[in-house]
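Subject: design request, 293 residues
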């Protein structure tokens, strides 16, 4: 966590948090800023430049850093309005904004480019993922936002209010029952895929690998995928927003079978995630995923 908070004054009262509408404005402004970054870095060569190692432990692309800067500009504006929160970002780690030192203040979990390899190779499927939380576990997330740049689609959810895709509610169709026609897989190194794919032969018709865990999650929420699973442990920045959107759409989700309260939001945490339209299909995916342990 940074030693010096980014402070600001504004109209927000002490201890207050931005409204969902204000977070949506910040996220949408960041999307426009990130689009400019991508427009200024055209082609694989222009996007294959690195800038050290991020707090999440991965090599940081210049476009990763620039897109994170875009979102942090929005956070600085919120701090200037008088809000206090802690940002958890893949590149910068934990950064405190504002003057409220209370342990219960807002947590903002950000992955500016979920699917950095896709973005670097100019594959259009990558996303901005933002989650807002009142505590340090997945169970505490109250708002999730995922923007998929390839399809130019906006997914978000507020806890208790359902999931939304481009302004319209999305909800799992319970009348469809069980069935895994299409399953998304993430972190798909070949040797891991083979072990799990063999287990799925009799239950799954087709596999898809978008290359962005947040996108795979929201595709389950939208009913495009019947299920999804990760092939290795993911980080909070990858899953925090998408997992709320999935659950608010009525799908089933699990972090390696553990309670949501045990899935921490700090950058050091790693966990497998799986989701499906139905609980029984989720159980099957979890059994296949367990082969990786």
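Subject: RE: design request

Done. Sequence follows.
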């Amino acid at each position: 966590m940074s030693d010096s908070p980014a402070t600001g004054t504004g109209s927000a009262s002490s201890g207050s948090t931005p409204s969902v509408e204000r977070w949506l404005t910040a996220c949408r402004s960041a999307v426009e800023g990130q689009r400019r970054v991508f427009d200024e870095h055209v082609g694989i060569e222009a996007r294959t430049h690195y800038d050290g190692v991020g707090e999440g432990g991965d090599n940081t692309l210049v476009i990763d850093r620039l897109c994170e800067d875009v979102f942090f500009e929005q956070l600085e504006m919120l701090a200037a309005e008088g809000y206090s929160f802690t940002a958890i970002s893949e590149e910068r780690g934990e950064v405190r904004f504002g003057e409220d030192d209370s342990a219960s203040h807002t947590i903002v979990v950000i992955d500016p480019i979920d699917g950095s390899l896709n973005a670097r190779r100019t594959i259009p499927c990558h996303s901005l993922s933002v989650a807002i939380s009142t505590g340090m576990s997945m169970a505490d997330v109250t708002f999730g936002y995922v923007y998929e740049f390839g399809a130019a689609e906006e997914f978000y959810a507020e806890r208790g209010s359902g999931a939304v895709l481009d302004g319209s509610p999305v909800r799992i169709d319970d009348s469809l029952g069980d069935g895994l026609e299409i399953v998304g897989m993430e972190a798909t190194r070949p040797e891991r895929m083979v072990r799990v794919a063999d287990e799925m032969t009799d239950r799954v018709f087709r596999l898809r690998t978008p290359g962005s865990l947040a996108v795979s999650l929201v595709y389950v929420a939208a009913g495009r995928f019947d299920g999804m699973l990760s092939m290795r442990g993911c980080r909070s920045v990858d899953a925090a927003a998408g997992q709320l959107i999935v659950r608010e759409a009525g799908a089933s989700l699990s972090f390696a079978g553990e309670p949501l309260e045990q899935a921490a939001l700090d950058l050091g945490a790693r966990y497998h995630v799986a989701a499906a339209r139905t609980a029984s299909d989720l159980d099957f995916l979890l059994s296949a995923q367990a082969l990786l342990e």
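Residues 28 and 147 are 9 Å apart (CA to CA).
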